[in-house]
Amino acid sequence: MLTIIPDKAAFVLEVHRRLYEIYGVRIEYFHDLDPLSELVTTLLSHRTKNRDSAQAFQNLRNAFGSWENVRDADVDAIMPQLKPCTWPEQKAPRVKEVLRLITEKLGQLNLDFLGGMEVTAARQWLEELPGVGPKSSAAVISFSTLRGKALPVDSHHFRVASRLGIIDAKIGEGKANRVLEDLLPPNFTARETFDHHQVMMRHGQKVCLYYKPDCAACIILDLCSTGQSIVAKKGN
Ligand code: SF4
Question: How far is CA 148 from CA 16, 112, 124, 181, 197, in A?
């Protein structure tokens, strides 16, 4: 039977509460990168498995030793280090260009100043860089040592939210980012906002899979009309 919670924000909070019961205890920040390094990882991570983008990131660090050296290197020298990623031929010039632009704007390669800005302004600053959208700016604010309050929405998170009817899939991941963040309780801390992304993403990775969601075993089946239809079809 479908449990109806008409208020969308209350619905999201109930989803969060239930998923947190399952995944919450194991959630940790997964690294301690400064904001500039986090930005580079987000540029590498587009449509790439975490393990592969982490390898490419490490390759860059090992080969060049500093972001200044990456900025000043030839694209042809950067590209082989990004081989574990998808599209190294696009990501190599993009990373170099972003590092160049940051130097041009700030006179140095360091994004720690973002920690002194209001989050909306910091995200806006980041999103003026090429290839940096709402998901990337949120990742820099939330995942880096800034540990700020911003909600990244990846493809798993997006899929779970749209199947639950929280958002219309047609709006796309970019817009979903702000819509989903606005539905969280205003008093959620940065850590709770990070946790929310993590529980939604993990549910998408473990249960609400792209091809075969395990709706019968899903702890939020009673909240999900998509899941109810899938289960009903299987029962026929
Ligand atoms: S019921 Fe199915 S479609 Fe809905 S969230 Fe759970 S796994 Fe995903």
Answer: 19, 12, 14, 13, 13
pLDDT (tens digit per residue) in 112-146: 999 999 999 999 999 999 999 999 999 999 999 99
Q: What is the residue with the minimal CA distance to atom 8 of ligand 1?
A: 208
- The last residue of a domain, from among 143, 176, 193: 143
Residue 3 lies in a domain: no
Does residue 201 line the site of ligand 1, with CB under 6 A?
A: no
Residues 105 and 178 in one domain: no
pLDDT digit string, tens, across residues 26-84: 788 878 999 999 999 999 998 888 889 999 999 999 999 999 999 999 999 999 999 99
- Rounded CA gap, 17 and 28, in Å? 17
Q: From ligand 1's centre to the CA of 203, what distance in Å?
A: 9
How many structural domains comprise the chain? 2
Which residue from 146, 135, 143, 137 is spatially nearest to 112, judged by alpha carbons? 146
The reported pTM is 0.92
- 111 and 206 share one domain: no
Do residues 125 and 40 share a domain?
yes
205 shares a domain with 110: no
